[in-house]
Amino acid sequence: MNPEHARAALRPVLTGVVLVTLFAFFFVYPAHDPQPNGLPVAVVGDASLPLGDGFEVVRVDNEAEAREAILDREAYGAFVPGPPPKLLVASAASVPAAQLLAAAAARGSAPPVTEDVRPVDEDDPRGVSINLVGLATTITSILGALLLFNLAPTLPAAWRLGSLALFSVLGAALAMLVVQVGIGALPGSYFALAAVAALAIFAVASVSAAVIGALGFPGVGLSFAIFLMLGNPGSGAASAPELLPEPWQTGGQLLPPGAAATGLRNVAYFDGAQAWDWLTVLLVYAGIGTAALLLLGRRRRAEPAS
Question: For residue 44, with 0-12 CB atoms within 10 Å meaning exposed, 13-18 middle and 19 or more buried, which class applies?
């Protein structure tokens, strides 16, 4: 056996094994057993309920305020004392959270009447489409940045940014055309959903392009590690951020996949609720990516003169 060939073959094998192990851990651990971790629930009046640990009670004065708290994304459900007692849920906010609330309510002495005030789209009964859209756009955003450097390595920074912007807009427009118009999986304004998706794609693609431009091929792995291995499982798109353990619950919403998932959900079902929170994250990453690419282009222009 040739020792040199053995060492050369062992390096990618070990790297691949490490990557498989890391991806398995980061994808499975945060979401394998969704449990409430500060899950906000509105409760009318001073009613006492057997919610158990992990729920955060938000006191409201009446049923109208409870409904408003759900639609403003300040609570995932609400308990309204009877008779008969009532449980308000919003499966569009999180199917697992609605199920957990229903299970908690069933432990009471008088099982409540359940009303879904904002159900998921009938073409997406398990509420999985937003997570799948996020996964697809995250992967293709990084690949788009990689293709830009591979197929057009000498583009000036301004042209590179313009290409990424065009890629983001056209990619989001066609993706939402497929998901919303073709499949019918998401309600809401097509143009608003496409705008959120475009901003999310640009945020990931521009930062990834800057990292790849600065580090070369290792930047591809770093981009996948940040946005896919950390960002997608921490997004809460498959359940809810408040059903994830820390640091995924907080950290996931500070990465573009989490902000994009919340933005798509809130635009599709909740009239763009809490837009400032998720828009800020996406705009910050888009700004970082833009600034980094411009600085990278300036540095490259200065290199021949030095």
Answer: buried
Helices (H), the chain: 3-28, 63-71, 95-105, 129-151, 157-176, 190-215, 218-223, 248-252, 256-269, 275-302
How many C-beta atoms lie closer than 10 Å to residue 42's C-beta?
A: 23
Mean pLDDT per 10-residue run, the chain (306 residues)? 75 85 89 88 82 87 95 95 89 94 80 92 91 95 92 88 96 96 93 97 97 92 94 93 93 96 97 95 97 89 61
What is the spatial distance between Cα 186 and Cα 176, in angstroms, rounded to a whole number? 9
Residue 42: both structure tokens together: 């509105």
H-helix or E-strand spanning residue 43: strand 39-44
Using only the alpha carbons of the chain, give its radius of gyration: 22
Question: What does the alpha-carbon distance between residue 199 and residue 282 come to, in Å, rounded to a whole number?
Answer: 7
pTM, whole model, 2 decimals? 0.91
| Main-chain phi, psi angles of 144, to 5 degrees | -60, -40
Residue 86 and residue 110 in contact, taking contact as beta carbons nearer than 8 Å = no
